[in-house]
């Protein structure tokens, strides 16, 4: 009898203890995911600067380079940039981003200096091909690295920050090139040579500190110059596993890596990125032409007027990404930007007053450049597995290279002054973006409903749900 009373007394206390312990774990999980844990806030402050800030500055140097040469040399660059995406990101995963990114940035800086010292066109073509190989590893590795450090509803702000910061700084590249060209004749070099020499030197100077500043993947971060300690690294890993449970990276297997190409969604993600890139590259080449030839601004004025459009892009993109992460919505913001792009193309291409046309440029550059990080975030939110994530990053950035080829060709000098084929190409690209985004989002909504009813497991994880 005494034993029975003892059991009746102990059992409620044991049950109560388990309940409290369970609630404590649940509260801890919530604080890790919503970022309210002060330890997580401290880690994110560090990573925002050392990852997103640095990647944005380095990306600016890549962006500046691509609009300084004629069409032929641009076309030489992109095939190598596209083909070398998958192997480069696999190498980055193997040898760690800090070493990989430092090497390729310094190397492409040296190659850029070489552009200013060449003696023949054949040498220039060879350097452009080499530059395409080196830059192939940068953007996809950067996007992949960001996705490994943040949970799904935090990556929009970070993708926007690093990409749009780089694009904004790159938007001042025209002013930099115009200034460097004034060195014409110094040391016997033509002005165009000084553009490449100095831009290459700047790239090297910025690239070298990356070895100390940049960090590797979370599980390797404690080795990155004591950036965070082992306990902090485990906190990051814990919250990533709570969010999507794919921190562990299995050994690399080529067949398994390439098998991800069977997932049709990846090609829709790639289409979003490619078609958005068409508009991005087209406006990068077309806007200075319009400002100089059609709106009759001087070369110096055209270069200066180009930059505010990119400042607007970072304001728009960062603002949208803040609310996108807050509400955990991607497609509505992407589609909103598509609508603004259509408005911008129509105003810039078909309006008459110069001021109105220039105003239209803001509504092409801002939304088009903002949709690049949204494309990255949309795909990163809707895949599981480290090697699939790496393959997808490489695929969509490679597709962006195809968009770069198209965008650099659609505005032809023989189409002046109306440039109708280029304008129609941009409108077509935006229209196809809308179709692609609506198709995948409708599928995601349908699949989530099936998973909620217990009819399907998404991406092999019963708890995973698509983000749209």
UniProtKB/TrEMBL annotation:
Organism lineage string: Eukaryota, Fungi, Dikarya, Ascomycota, Pezizomycotina
Protein name in UniProt: Major facilitator superfamily (MFS) profile domain-containing protein
Q: Where in the cell is it found?
A: Membrane
The protein's UniProt keywords, in alphabetical order, are: Membrane, Transmembrane, Transmembrane helix, Transport
What coarse category fits the chief subcellular location reported for this protein? membrane
Membrane-crossing residue ranges in chain numbering: 70-88, 100-118, 130-150, 162-180, 192-214, 266-291, 297-319, 331-351, 357-378, 390-410, 422-445
Pfam families, per the entry: MFS_1
InterPro entries membership = MFS, MFS_trans_sf
Identify the species of origin. Exophiala bonariae
**Which molecular function terms from Gene Ontology are attached?**
transmembrane transporter activity
Q: Which domain of life is it from?
A: Eukaryota
Gene Ontology CC, one term: membrane
Q: How does this protein sit in the membrane?
A: Multi-pass membrane protein
